[in-house]
Write a structure and sequence with these properties.
Blueprint: H1 2-148, H2 152-202, E1 212-221, E2 224-231, E3 237-239, H3 241-255, E4 259-265, H4 272-286
Parallel strand pairs: 1-4
Antiparallel strand pairs: 1-2, 2-3
Helix pairs in contact: 1-2
């Protein structure tokens, strides 16, 4: 019996150890389950974060592509502005040359006007001298009549003789006056024309700023003439010559003083004269700068 008690105690102790071990394993299992749930939650969070990162990456890629397109557009606009600047610089240089020539012509015209003024003064003096001579002849006629007590016939004869001289002087004076007036009229007309050219020259240079720009192209394929139009914000369209003028006329009526015609003749297929005549025709008919 004592042995059984001892064995029972040993079994009880062993059972208690097993129970304790089982309890410990249960606790470890619970801890593992909690850790698994935490890991599952962390994995879910990581997947969500990964999705957000992928979305952000896609957004950044789209933004980078849009930025690249914008930069390309900016570069194209910059290149266009540089070309316009170079063209304006060439126009300014040409205008400076023309302005210098006009200034020289203005100086020459002013000198010519001064010469005509001096001639006018000389003419006035000559007219005054002629008038004085006429008065002197009249006085001499009166003195002659009184001194010699001429008969009516002789007096009439002398008056007629001196009257011819007076009339000749009067005609000469009128002729000189007419010549002087004609010279002054010519001078005024030339001065007015030159002043108009000079005023047009010194006004602001032709510019695309604030204008509606339309490109006008002209080239030849063999003997066939080709034309096209392209608005600044549109695509190029081929047109016939009559359609070209119809559309430009409509644009001029719609935009008025805002229409800027950028004429681009093809130097390879056109002669210099053909290109110049076409450019001059389009500008004078439709471009805002050449309408004033």
């Amino acid at each position: 019996r004592q042995q059984l008690s001892t064995e029972k105690a040993a079994l009880s102790e062993e059972l208690a150890g097993v129970i304790a071990q089982s309890q410990n394993q249960l606790e470890q299992l619970a801890a593992s389950e909690g850790l698994r749930e935490q890991l599952s939650l962390d994995l879910t969070n990581l997947n969500n974060a990964l999705s957000e990162l992928q979305s952000e990456q896609s957004r950044l890629i789209l933004a980078a592509e849009a930025r690249a397109q914008y930069q390309a557009t900016v570069v194209q606009a910059r290149d266009a502005l540089l070309r316009d600047r170079d063209a304006l610089a060439e126009q300014v240089n040409a205008l400076e040359v023309t302005r210098s020539a006009l200034r020289t012509e203005v100086v020459a015209l002013r000198n010519e006007r001064a010469g005509l003024v001096r001639t006018s003064v000389s003419t006035q003096l000559a007219l005054e001298e002629s008038r004085l001579e006429g008065e002197e002849l009249t006085a001499r006629l009166a003195e002659t009549a009184l001194e010699y007590k001429l008969t009516k016939e002789e007096l009439a004869y002398l008056r007629a003789q001196y009257a011819d001289e007076v009339e000749a002087f009067s005609k000469e004076r009128e002729l000189l006056g007419a010549i002087h007036k004609a010279e002054l009229d010519i001078l005024r007309e030339r001065h007015s024309d030159l002043e108009s050219k000079y005023n047009r020259l010194v006004r602001p240079a032709r510019s695309t700023v604030g204008r509606i720009v339309i490109e006008v192209r002209f080239w030849k394929e063999g003997d066939v003439r080709r034309y096209s139009l392209r608005p600044a914000s549109g695509s190029e369209i081929s047109v016939s010559e009559s359609e070209l003028h119809q559309q430009l006329t409509a644009m001029k009526a719609r935009h008025g003083e805002k229409l800027y015609t950028k004429v681009m003749p093809d130097d390879n297929s056109l002669t210099h004269g053909e290109a110049w005549r076409f450019t001059n025709k389009i500008l004078n008919r439709y471009d805002y700068y050449y309408q004033n």
